[in-house]
Amino acid sequence: MRLHRLDITAFGPFGGSQSVDFDALSTAGLFLLHGPTGAGKTSVLDAVCYALYGTVPGGRQTGQGMNLRSDHAEPGTRTEIRLELTVAGRRLEVTRQPPWERRKLRGTGTTVDKAQTWLREYDAPAGTWKDRSRSHQEIGEEITQLLGMSREQFCQVVLLPQGDFARFLRADAEARGRLLGRLFDTQRFADVEKRLAERRRASEARVRDGDAALLADAHRMQQEAGDAMELPELSPGEPGLAEAVLDAAAVARSTARERLTVAQCRLSTAESAHEAARHALDEARELARLQSRFAEARQRAERLQEGAGAHREAQERMARARKAEMVAPALDLRNAAEHEHREAARAEARARVDLSGSHAGDGPAGLAAAARRATEELGGLESARRAERRLTEATEERAGLNQQERVDEDVLREADAWLADWDTTRAALRSRVESAQEAATRAEQLAVRREPAQRRLAAARGRDELAADLERARHRALASRQQAVDARAHWLDLKEQRLNGIAAELAAQLSDGEPCAVCGATEHPAPARKVAGHVDRETEERALADCRRAEEQHAEDERSLGVVREALAAATAEAGDTPTERLAAEAADLEREYTSARRDASALHAAHEELRRAEQERERRLDERQRAAVRTAARLTRRETLEREQAALEQELTQARGAAASVAARAAELERQTARLTEAADAARAAEDAAQRLKDADARLADAAYRAGFDTPRAAAAALLDDAAHRELQHRLDAWQTEEAAVRAVLAEAGTAAAAQRPPADPDAAERTAAEAARRLREAASARDAADRRSTELDRLSARAAEGVRRLAPLREEYDRVARLAALTAGTSADNERRMRLESYVLAARLEQVAAAATVRLHRMSSGRYTLVHSDDRTGRGRSGLGLHVVDAWTGRERDTATLSGGETFFASLALALGLADVVTDEAGGVRLDTLFIDEGFGSLDDQTLDEVLDVLDALRERDRSVGIVSHVADLRRRVHAQLEVVKGRSGSALRQRGD
Question: Which single residue of 240, 415, 554, 937 could bond 906 by disulfide (Cβ 3.0 to 4.6 Å)?
Fold first, then answer.
C-alpha cells in the first residue's frame, strides 16, 4: 500500500481545504510531520484512517461522525476527505463526506445531510477515473479485503503509536495477550477453550445425572433388602461409585435368595398340616350331615303316617273330576248356544222398534223383499244427485267470476295510476345513483391524499419537538465544549509547569552513589530544588482526569446532538418546511371532505337496489295489467255458458225431488229406510238359527252325562274342577308321593344308617383346627411371596443398575477425555507444566515471530547491544507464555523489558512496532506496506542513538518504503529535510510542505 495524495476540507482543526502530496514527501523516503502541540498532526493520520475505514482511531469519533467537522469551517463548506492510494496493484481514490448539518434552503432552521462515500479506480490504458461504488458497506468491504487488515490492525501496523508499544513492553502477560489477540485474531482458539470447557461441564453433568440415577436405584435396592445391604458413602461423579453399587447389589441378591429358600421350606410344612386339618374337617362335616339326614327322614315318615286319610279322600275327588272332564265339552257347547240365543233375541227386538206399522209383523223374507224395493228406488235418484251437485258448482263458479272481475278492475286501476308516474320516479332514482357514484369517486381520491397528509402532520409535530430538542442539545454541546477546552488548557498549563520543574522532581529521587536516571552520574553536586507553586504528578493527573471527563461529557453531548440532528433531518424530509398549524388545518379539511364523501357514497348500493326494485315493480304491473285484460275477455264467454247449463239442471231437479225439499233429502230418506229393513231381516234370521242350535246342544249334553256315569247333567257339572283347583289337588297328590319315595330312599341308605349308629359328630372343633392351620399357611405364603418379590425386585433393580453402568461407561470415558483436553487447553492440567492456555500458546508463537523480526532492527539501533527474546517462564504463581525479555550483550544477562531506560524503551518499542508490522503484514496475506507513520518518542534519545534509529528508518527505503515521523522534536527538523508542517492559527490549522 502506497499513499499518493490526501485532500482535507473542513476536517478537525483544518477550517479550509488542505492537500498533502505523499509522492513528493516519499521521494526522500523519510519525512517529518511536525507542528506545535494541538496543531493537528494526529488529525492528518485520522484523515487517512477515516478515508479508508469511515472511522477515526480510538475514542476520537463520537456522534456518528458529526464531531469530525472543523469548528473553523465556513457554514457553507462541507467536510470532505479524499485519499488517493495504490494497493494490490490498483490505483484507487476514496472520497468520504461525514454527516453534515446545514441551514435549510427554504425557511429557517437546519437539516442534516447523510454521509456520502465514493470509490473510483484509475484506468491506466484509458487514462481516466472510473466509478466503482457509492455504497458505504461495499467500499468498506473492498478496502478491508485489499488491505487484508481491520481498522485496529491498520492503526497498529501503519500508524505506529509508540506509547502503546512502550506500554506493551512493560505490560504483564494478560495485557500483552489482549493486544496480540486483537491483532492476530486468535478468538477462535479462545472459542476452542470455551467450547471444551462447556463440553466438560455438559459431560460432567451427564455423568452426575447417571450416577444420581444409579444411587437412586441403590436406595431402592436398600429399601427392598433392608439390613442385608449397605450403601457406599460416595457422591455422584466420584470414581468407584458404579463398582461399589454393583458389589453391594450382588451381596443383597445373594441374601435375598437364601431367605427365599427358607420361606419356601416353611410354606411346604404349613401346606401339609393344612391339608390334614382340612381332610379331618371334611370327615366331621360329612358324619354330622348323615346323622342329621337320618333323624330328619324318621320325622318325615311319622308326618306321612298322620296324613294318610286326607290323602285317600283327595284321590277319590280326583277320580270323579276326571270322569266329569268327559262331559265338559258338551256342557261348554250348550252354555255357548244358550248365550248366543239370548243375544240374537235382544238384537231382533231392537231392530223391529224403528220399523213402520206395515212391516212390524213381517218375517225375515218379507223384510228382505221390502229392503230390495227401497234400494231400487234409491238407485234411480243417483243421476238427479249429480245434477244437483253440478248446479251448486255452477252457481259458485258464477259468484267467483263476479268477484274476480272486481279484483281485476282494482288491479287495472292501481297499475294505471302507478305507471303514470314512472318517468318521474325513474329520473329521480337515476339522479341519486349518479350522485352516490360521484361521491364514491371523490372519497377514493381523498383517501389517497389522506394518509400522506396524516404522516406529514405527524412528522411536522415531531419536527417541532425535535427543533426544540436540537436547540437544547446545541446549548449543552457548546457549554460542554467550552468546559472541555478550559479543562484541557488548564491541564496543559499544569503539564508545562511540571515539565519546567521536572528537574526538581527527578532530583528528589536521587541518592548518593546511585546513578542518575537522566545522565547516569553517581555524584549529584547541585541537584535542582522545588520552587514555590511546584506542580507535582498527582496534581497533573487530577487535571488530566478532569480534562478527560470534560472531553467525555462533550463527546456524549455531541453524540446526543448528532442523534437529534439526524432525527430532525428525517422528520424535516418527511414534513417539509410547511408550518404545523397549516398542515393540521389542511389535514382537518381533508378529513371532513373525506368523511362527507364516504357518507354520501354509502348510499350508492341502496340507490342501485331501489332503482332495480322500481324497474322490477314496473315490469310486474305491466304484466298484471295484461293478464287482467285477458281474464276479462275469458269471463264473458264463460258466464254465458254457465247460464244455459243452470236452466237445464233446474228443470231436471224439479222432476226428481217430488215432495222433498231436495234430491239429497229424498235420497237420504230412502237410504235410512233401506238400512232399517235390512238390519231387521238379518236379526230375525239370526234369532231363528240360535234357537235351533240351543235345542241340539241340550240333546248332546244329556247323552254325554249318561255315558260318563252321572244321573243328570247337573251332577256332572258339580263334579268338574276349574284349572286352579285341579292344579292344587294334583300338586298335593304328587307332593305326597314324592315325599313318601324320598323318605323310603333315605331310610334304605346303608351309609346313613351306619352313621346313625356312630357317636355324635363335633364339626366345630375340627373347624377350629382347620382355621388355625389355614392361618399358619397364609403367614407362610405371605412370607414366601414377600421373599420372592424382594428377590425379583432386587434382580430387576440390579439388572437396571448394571445396564445404567454399561450405558454410562461411554459417557464417563468421554468426560475423562474432554476434561483432560479442557484442563490442558485451560492451563490447569498437571501435564501442562507451564500452565499455558491454548490461546496464550498461539500468541506466544506469534510473539516469538514478532521478537525475532524486532531484534533485526533493535540490534542495529542499539549498536549490537540488545536482542529481544520471547520467554515462556512462569511469573510468580501466574501462567507463562507471553514473557518478553531483552538480552544485554554487554553484560550477557537476560532481563525484563520493563528495566529499560526511557530512550532504550523508545527504540525497543520502535523495533517491536516495525517487527509487528512485518508479521501482521505477512499474516494479512503479504500486502506490501510502502507508507508508514511513527508517532512521537524521539525526544528521549541522545544524538548517537537518534542517528542509529534514523539509519534504521532510512534503511526501510531499501524496500521502496516511505516513513513519516510524527514529532515536535526540534533536532529532527535539521536531520530530516522532507517535512510536512502543521501551522496552528486562530482561524484553524494549515499544512506547509517542503521537500529536500
Answer: 937
CA 628 to CA 982: how far, in whole Å? 115
State the burial class of residue 557 (Cβ atoms within 10 Å of its Cβ: 0-12, 13-18, 19+): buried
Alpha carbon separation from 246 to 145, 400, 690, 804 (Å, rounded): 63, 112, 111, 11
SS (H, E, C) 682-700: HHHHHHHHHHHHHHHHHHH
Pick left, alpha or beta for residue 883 (phi over 0 → left; psi -120 to 50 → alpha; otherwise beta): beta
Residue 824 contacts residue 868 (beta carbons within 8 Å): no
Residues found in the chain: 996
Contact 45, 55 (CB under 8 A): no
Give, in degrees to the nearest 5, the angle at Cα 897 between 893 and 900. Answer: 85
Strand partners, 83: 6, 94
Our CA dihedral for 875, 878, 879, 885, rounded to 10 degrees, sits at: -20
Query: Is residue 747 a contact partner of residue 301, using CB atoms and an 8 Å limit?
Result: yes
Cell of 387: 245434477
First vs last Cα of the chain: how many Å apart?
23
Q: How far is CA 239 from CA 209, 816, 976, in A?
A: 14, 11, 73
Contacts of 557 by beta carbon, 8 Å cutoff, 6+ apart: 473, 476, 477, 479, 480, 481
**3-class DSSP state of 741:** helix
Q: What is the DSSP letter of 69?
A: B
Average pLDDT over residues 347-373: 70
How is residue 477 written as a grid cell? 454541546
Q: What is the pLDDT of residue 6?
A: 93
Q: Specify which residues 116 forms β-bridges with.
A: 97
As a three-state string, the secondary structure of 812-855 is HHHHHHHHHHHHHHHCCCCCCCCCCCHHHHHHHHHHHHHHHHHH
As a whole number of angstroms, the distance between CA 32 and CA 978 comes to 6
Distance CA 616, CA 89 (A): 87
d(CA 679, CA 676): 5
10 Å CB burial of residue 206 (0-12, 13-18, 19+) is middle
Average of per-residue pLDDT across 587-591 = 82
Look at strands 159-161 and 931-935 and give their pairing.
Answer: parallel
> Counting Cβ atoms within 10 Å, is residue 186 exposed (0-12), middle (13-18) or buried (19+)?
buried
Q: How far apart are CA 247 and CA 231, in angstroms?
A: 10
For residues 372-405, one letter each, b for 16 or more C-beta atoms within 10 angstroms of the residue's C-beta and e for the rest, the string is eebeeebeebeebbebbebbeebeebbeebeeee
Amino acid identity of residue 503, one-letter, is A
Percent of the chain having pLDDT more than 70?
79
In which band, very low, low, confident or very high, does the pLDDT at 878 lie, cut at 50, 70 and 90? very low
- Quote the radius of gyration of the chain (alpha carbons, Å): 67
The CB-side HSE value for 779 (13 A sphere, CA atoms) comes to 10
